[in-house]
Specification:
The chain is built from no helices and ten strands. It is mostly beta strands.
Length: 119
């Protein structure tokens, strides 16, 4: 079955960096777009970034554009989210989702990884 396993979260100071990973299994990785979402405390889950199946097309939320980079390595069935210049408002649980560029996320989610930005 489809499995998505996030890792790489943690506590970081404002201005710092983290790189999240999402390891996938149970489907043909190269056939699918992938996305990162986040859920901040007291907020609804929101799209952070998506990458197409080819890796040639990416989209970002306005709040992270220029600071976050989504990428994928099909050989290891992993999608990444490089986060730089982190701000306290980036504090959230970050989730990987199979899919992207559609009107809504797919039903396939990872368990999430906590990112806390605090001094």
């Amino acid at each position: 079955q489809v499995q998505l396993v996030e890792s790489g979260g943690g506590l970081v100071q404002p201005g710092g960096s983290l790189k999240l990973s999402c390891a996938a299994s149970g489907f043909t990785f190269s056939d699918h777009a992938l996305s990162w979402y986040r859920q901040r405390p007291g907020k609804e889950r929101e799209l952070v970034a998506s990458i197409s199946s080819t890796g040639f097309t990416t989209i970002y939320a306005d709040s992270v554009r220029g600071r976050f980079t989504i990428s994928r390595v099909d050989a290891v069935k992993t999608v990444y989210l490089q986060m730089t210049n982190l701000k306290p408002e980036d504090t959230a649980v970050y989730y990987c989702n199979r899919g992207g560029f559609g009107p809504r996320p797919s039903d396939y989610w990872g368990q999430g990884t906590q990112v806390t930005v605090s001094s």
